Amino acid sequence: MSPFALEEPASLAEALALLDPDDPGVRAIAGGTALMLMMKSGLYRPQRLVSLRRLGPALTGIQAAADGGIEIGAMVRLAEIERSAAIRMAAPVITETLLTHSNVRVRNVATIGGNLAHADPHMDLPPVLIALGATLRVAGPSGERVVAVEDLVTGYLETVLANNELITSVSIPPQTGRRAAYVKCTARTADDWPALGLAVSVRAADGIVHDARVAIGAATETAQRLPQAEAALAGRAVNDATLREAGRARLPRRRSSPTTTDRPPISGC
Q1: Which of 28, 192, 207, 226 is the most exposed, having the fewest neighbouring CB atoms within 10 Å of its CB?
Q2: Buried b (16+ CB within 10 A) or exposed e, 85-107
Q3: Tell me, what CATH number does 208's domain have?
Q4: Residue 19: inside a domain, yes or no?
Q5: Is there a domain that residue 216 lies in?
Q6: Mind listing the pLDDT tens digit for each residue in 21-66?
Q7: Which DSSP letter does residue 111 get?
Q8: CB of 204 within 8 A of CB of 210?
Q9: DSSP percent split of the chain into helix, strand, coil, nearest 5
Q10: What is the pTM (predicted TM-score) of this model?
Q11: How many helices (H) and strands (E) does the chain have?
């Protein structure tokens, strides 16, 4: 591993000031489980890393809203999310998904913000959060903006984030009246990276689907919704014929974006 400087800012404003929008050798690091592997293999050789570990409660809370929604700070570790009673109540599919997300050693270190910013398609959480309609709060020198999880990743290790922007929180809207599930296929053990991940969230009554959100991951370059599968389910009875039709739905064409950032991850998960 090549030598690098390590900065440890004590505030979000200080962290943003240390990031250089034009220097690919400067990156933020959260848990570091992915970024450190890239560095050890020589795939990425940073000149300076900006550690986010001292940013404190501003990025580490889990807040449940009165309407049933929930907001998760970007620096909350995956193991904390897995154990959170608030998340289990608001979106139990996240808890269930994390039980087979990598292994407990990784979950004890990796953060949700870093996990998403890393933009590796072989991840469990992106399709789940897309199916739940989750959004991200992103901070940069010019202020904050909101990005839908489905719009975050534009390609392999590529996102819409500028080099001097950071994810600060993940917001999940109320899931009242909805049920969600995630399934994945792996080449080896259940906690292996998915070869295919599929997340579904539906609002149904009396056996009829009134609204569906379906997202796929791992088998595609980016996690994405399947609008044709959603249309095949909406307004239909849940039976084998409906599910077969939804299963035959085509993938949407890949979107191109002028804001794509071709770079290593803004924050190692």
Answers
A1: 207
A2: eebeebbebbbbbbebbbeeebb
A3: 3.30.390.50
A4: no
A5: yes
A6: 999 899 999 999 988 888 988 888 999 999 999 987 779 999 999 9
A7: B
A8: yes
A9: 25, 30, 45
A10: 0.90
A11: 11, 16
